[in-house]
Write a structure and sequence with these properties.
The chain is mainly beta. The protein is built from five helices and 25 strands.
Length: 315
């Protein structure tokens, strides 16, 4: 039986030669186990000052020549890499950026960067400008049958947008995201976002806009002539120079009652007027004096002619 110590000491020269050959063979196989390959990685800019923007088209990807061991898939090693460019110290103008291995982020230890192309990168940085623009509600669909959209109010009415001067000059108004009003039969409020017309523009003060929509039953108009004008209250020395006026009122289409000029009255408050050689021109208040049910709550004055009535006050 050969003891371990005897086996180690037996033929030491041959054993040293075998060990040396193994080392040389390992190195040769290790060299053959490396691969050089070109991979495409995205370009990422970080720390760009908020008052600057890249004004021209720029390189969004670069080709990186790497060396890696064959036993590990190159795609798996290089999949998370990117070319990261720090713009913290940059100012407006033309900028040339040289890339090196330090710009390649998420690089595995087993990957060596040999070259990057294109290199250097050329950028144009421009100052950001601001502009106030009108907000225009964007609506889709139609209200329920027999109803109509009467008015849309939005708050705010304007927003401030930021971007490059060339982009801002093209924009005078900005639309909201679409709001569907299909089938609606009453007014409602909604919060929507504004939709910048270009990805190079941004909203400065938040993108939320509140819309107030007035939806009501469709109306029909009725022209009334010789609507009487009355002083309220009557007053000695005060007289009307305009006795009647023409009135256009609107009523819901579902209203079936009969309406005439005698159902309305134009009242003029003249009790605070001082005597004058020239007649006063006063906007009258239109009231209903009708016994028609619900008329007072349903009618709306669309126009009247004349818009002001003349009143004379004597001493």
């Amino acid at each position: 039986m050969i003891r371990p110590r005897q086996w180690i000491l037996k033929n030491p020269g041959l054993k040293l030669i075998s060990l040396g050959l193994s080392f040389v063979l390992w190195n040769l196989l290790g060299v053959k186990d490396e691969v050089i390959r070109v991979v495409t990685v995205p370009v990422q800019f970080v720390n760009l000052a908020p008052d600057l923007a890249i004004s021209t088209d720029y390189q969004r990807q670069v080709e990186v020549t790497i060396r890696s061991r064959r036993r590990i898939a190159v795609e798996e090693e290089a999949g998370g890499m990117s070319a990261e460019i720090d713009l913290q110290t940059m100012v407006a103008g033309s900028v040339q950026i040289s890339l090196n291995e330090r710009n390649i982020s998420n690089r595995p230890l087993s990957v060596e960067v040999l070259s990057i192309a294109p290199n250097p990168l050329q950028l144009e940085l421009e100052q950001i400008h601001h502009k106030m623009v009108e907000v225009r509600p964007r609506l889709e669909g139609e209200p329920a049958e027999g109803y109509e959209l009467v008015e849309v109010l939005n708050s705010p009415q304007q927003v401030r947008i930021s971007g490059l001067e060339a982009e801002l000059s093209k924009v005078s108004a900005i639309s909201t995201e679409p709001l569907d009003i299909s089938g609606r039969s009453s007014g409602f409020d909604a919060e929507v976002d504004v939709d910048p017309p270009s990805p190079r523009l941004r909203i400065d003060d938040g993108s939320a806009v509140v819309l107030q929509l007035l939806i009501e039953e469709k109306r029909r108009e009725l022209a009334l002539t010789r609507v009487p004008v009355e002083l309220d209250p009557p007053r000695d020395g005060t007289s009307l120079m305009t006795r009647t006026l023409k009135l256009v009122v609107s009523l819901p289409i579902s209203f079936e009652g009969e309406v005439s000029s005698t159902d309305f009255q134009a009242r003029v408050a003249a009790d605070d007027l001082q005597p004058s050689r020239q007649p006063y021109e006063i906007l009258p208040e239109i009231v209903t004096v009708s016994e028609v049910e619900d008329l007072e709550d349903l009618y709306r004055v669309e126009s009247m002619e004349p818009e002001q009535v003349k009143v004379r006050v004597r001493r």
